[in-house]
User: What shape does this take?
Amino acid sequence: MVTKQPNTMIILSLLSLLLNFSPTTPVADIACNQLIEAISDQKTGVITYCNRYKLPVVDSNGKMMFDVGMQRKGSTSILSLTPAMDCKIVSGAQVTFTFTDKSQYKVLSNIDADETNVEIEINSELRTKMMTEKVLSIAFDGMKYPYNVILKPNQGRVVQDVINCLQH
Assistant: This one.
């Protein structure tokens, strides 16, 4: 007596083959969707990409906590440090980035007199450095004393990942 194999086995085999050929989303895109978000201005139609979660960092002296934010609007990328409490930053302060390879990059901030946050336009040279090396610290002058913000290793990695995602 010959028994027939059920048709369900054949159908299941075909379905599994079809599922393997379905379009997939690259892992980098999935990770970037977790790190950045797009915000659209309905009036102008301009889309701004920014990090989804703020990174709380502390000055090495423990005097001030800052939130690190990164955004890209058009071709301009900006890194900002927003203090948790009242804090005055020196106008046009020089900002020094120190990287894991012990190199430093100095740039002037884009703030007016008596601003309460630091904004740095990320030029192509700094962007390239941030995409390949993790940031260890960010130093700049305040009105009362200098700040040296130290990033934890995982925070330096998140900054690097967000910068990489903002470039896509």
Remarks:
- Residues 7-20 form the longest helix (14 residues).
